[in-house]
Q: What sequence folds into this?
């Protein structure tokens, strides 16, 4: 279960990168859902969710259901921005504790090392 | 009995081990209820735990007892209470008590005269009493044949705020008092620092499980865990790396495993077959940064105070929050609680000045 932090501007590029990565590496389609829909979203070895606001409902959902999500055996990716990650990690200690990693994610560098 | 401890302190493991131990007794009926699996904890109502217990107990009845009319009726009623139902009742047949419960109706005024004798415990709600009677009906044949029923309840500790936990203890768990059904429940850490006598009042016994299970400076236990899990296999890491991982875990088993795994990830990314000191350092930094995320000025001030003077007040809500998040670790030695900043966080704070 990973919390991936990105800048607001990079969101689209990162989502595209992740989808392509899953398609190439696993031959699967990655659907990126909204965080609030986590309960209704099933199937797939990798499940990705976008968190674009931190509401008490979302905090409750993630914090009390995180153990159940973990037991599904799927890999969960949560995509959000740094300020929202701060809010979420403070408000949802169970969720924080179960995260495998909190990481910053940047879009793939397609320049091949050359200046853009 | 309540097992009180922070997130990742091992309450679930203790419950599972207890379940295994109790299973050795032939006359024991042990029920493990993970409420998070059964229901949405955010929408849990008083009585729900009792329903879960009653339905599990039913599975332990003999075929003959299952066929008893009263037991069948009790089990069916529990199912209805669990799922809820919609019925149509004629106006003149409405149960006035039920009607008054939420709304006295247009032609009534509610006049409440407070009692002179304040009860020690809040009254058990009528629906909880009803569910409890059904559970006892189902448990009766088991108790009459002197089977020892123990229910192990996990998941309620995920309700971090103790008020919610209290609500269920005051209703569901208290309703079972005197029924000869034993309960062992995982409880949130905040109850340990509660100044009221809640744990003493509601539980015959309670055990505190600190997040730090061993002091890495004094015990080899954590190092042994790594060795048993293959740290020395194929020369994966040296004694120094094992010691560093153990020290910076702060004694928290979950963090020890996270540090070992992150170190291995770093070695893999580096295309190396063994974990070097640099990989361990990067894992420590990564864990420390996780604890650093969301750390505000007030928290930093309290942490500095703890680092400099060893002072830490669990009466301060911010201090309690840092205990829940394991930025600060609780230890218990010779009956005395004391606190320390998680070593991985302390390291990152030191580096950042």
A:
């Amino acid at each position: 279960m990973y919390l991936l932090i990105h800048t607001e501007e990079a969101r689209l590029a990162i989502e595209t990168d992740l989808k392509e990565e899953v398609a190439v590496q696993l031959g699967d389609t990655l659907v990126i859902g909204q965080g609030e829909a986590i309960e209704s979203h099933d199937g797939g070895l990798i499940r990705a969710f976008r968190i674009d606001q931190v509401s008490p409902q979302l905090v409750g959902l993630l914090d009390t259901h995180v153990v159940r999500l973990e037991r599904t055996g799927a890999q969960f990716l949560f995509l959000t921005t740094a300020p929202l990650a701060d809010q979420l990690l403070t408000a949802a200690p169970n969720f924080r504790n179960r995260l495998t990693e909190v990481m910053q994610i940047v879009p793939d560098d397609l320049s091949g090392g050359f200046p853009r | 009995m309540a097992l009180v401890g922070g997130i990742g302190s091992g309450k679930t493991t203790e419950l599972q081990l207890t379940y295994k131990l109790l299973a050795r007794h032939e006359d024991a009926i042990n029920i493990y209820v993970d409420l998070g699996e059964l229901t949405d904890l955010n929408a849990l109502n008083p009585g729900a735990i009792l329903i879960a217990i009653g339905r599990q107990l039913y599975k332990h009845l003999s075929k003959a007892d299952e066929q008893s009319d009263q037991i069948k009726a009790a089990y069916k009623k529990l199912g209805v209470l669990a799922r809820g139902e919609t019925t149509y009742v004629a106006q003149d047949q409405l149960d006035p008590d039920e009607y008054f419960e939420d709304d006295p109706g247009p032609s009534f005024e509610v006049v409440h005269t407070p009692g002179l004798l304040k009860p020690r415990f809040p009254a058990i709600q009528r629906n909880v009493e009803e569910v409890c009677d059904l559970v006892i009906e189902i448990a009766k044949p088991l108790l009459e044949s002197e089977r020892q029923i123990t229910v192990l309840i996990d998941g309620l500790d995920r309700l971090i705020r103790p008020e919610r936990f209290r609500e269920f203890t005051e209703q569901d768990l208290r309703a079972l008092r005197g029924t000869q059904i034993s309960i062992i429940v995982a409880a949130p850490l905040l109850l340990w620092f509660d100044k009221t006598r809640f744990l003493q009042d509601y539980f015959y016994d309670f055990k505190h499980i600190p997040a730090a299970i061993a002091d890495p400076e004094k015990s080899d236990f954590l190092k042994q865990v790594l060795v048993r899990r293959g740290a020395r296999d194929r020369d994966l890491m040296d004694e120094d790396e094992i010691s560093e991982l153990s020290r910076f875990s702060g004694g928290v088993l979950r963090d020890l495993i996270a540090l070992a795994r992150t170190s291995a990830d770093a070695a893999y990314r580096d295309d190396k077959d063994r974990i070097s000191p640099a990989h361990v350092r990067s894992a420590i930094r990564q864990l420390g940064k996780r604890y650093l995320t969301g750390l505000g000025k007030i928290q930093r001030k309290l942490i500095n105070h703890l680092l400099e003077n060893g002072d830490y007040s669990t009466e301060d809500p911010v201090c309690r929050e840092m205990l829940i998040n394991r930025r600060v670790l609780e230890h218990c030695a010779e009956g005395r609680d004391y606190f320390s900043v998680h070593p991985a966080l302390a390291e990152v704070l030191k580096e950042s000045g």
